[in-house]
Amino acid sequence: MSIESGRELQRTLERTSLLTEALCGLPAVATLDWADLASEAMASIGNASIAVTIICSIDGGGVIDTIEAVGVASHSDQVESADLAGIRARADRLVALGFAPDLDQLGQSPLIGPAERLLGGRDWRLGPLGKVMGDLQVGGLLVGVGKLGEAERGRVLMTLIAPTRSLVHDHHVQQLGATLPLLVRRTLLAVGPVSTGTSNWLTEREQQVLDQLSLGKSVRQIADSLGRSPHTVHDHVKNLHRKLNASSRGELIARALGHLPRGTRIRHRGADAIEIAPKPFASQTLRLTGTEAALNESEVARAMNRDAV
User: Fold this and answer.
1) Is the pTM of this model over 0.85?
2) The CATH classification of domain 202-263, taken from the options 1.10.10.10, 3.40.1010.20, 2.30.170.40, 1.10.340.30
3) What is the CA radius of gyration of the chain?
4) What is the three-class DSSP state of 29?
5) Which of 36, 200, 246, 285 has the fewest Cβ atoms surrounding its Cβ within 10 A?
6) Cα–Cα distance for residue pair 108/39, rounded to 1 Å
7) Quick check: helix, strand or coil at residue 92?
8) Mean pLDDT (10-residue bins), the chain, 309 residues
């Protein structure tokens, strides 16, 4: 390995470490700016890159059925806010990937590669994903597609990385390959395993209130801190309980900290708290195996026996 190659490897490792830290810092609950925050983190791949994050559902032919959320960010000082707005608008109108990913294989590992390779050598700029970048001068397009659980077969997270000051290199592909599985897990933690739309995602004000609740503050203390009336803050708290499907302050805080995945509940029995899964959604196909069910029943039985003592 040459000295220059060693330096590049060191820089890549440092960037990957920082990117991993940023992904772990993404909100554990879905916020209206969640996809933008994810894009802000992923834009660290490459040199002054543009990043696009899309949560969507696709079929086996690569046709997009629905788009849940789009996020856009750039680390280039040459990209204006109007450019990002144009990318967002084009991404929101995206109807196909231009290639057909194997949905079964996506369940095993994400699909990652330069756009031209996924398109079979065709000019990536002429494909649907390339057109998302419009006329911006970029050095290539790196694509990653990861499956969001098994509850909905075609629900995926897609990220597009477009360096503005370099080509797409092998170490960029490796960096995305190392971090995309983590982004998929963080996405599932925040938005859940089934499509719900963004109507239940937290607004900026609701997120501020949730942050204050996580600090142990009362409604009146939060009102004083944020300069709002207690009645307004109380309404935000009610919305938080509804949107996060939380029945207690403890569940709200557990979700905010990422300790309680979306859709799970805490059953309180005396001094013990047991995390339990809710009844599956009608569209959810996940089922407990016999072994898992037996383990869950044993755990509950042990807790009940402790209460009886």
Assistant:
1) no
2) 1.10.10.10
3) 22
4) coil
5) 285
6) 24
7) helix
8) 73 91 96 98 94 98 97 96 98 98 94 97 96 96 97 97 95 96 97 90 96 95 95 96 91 90 63 48 36 39 41
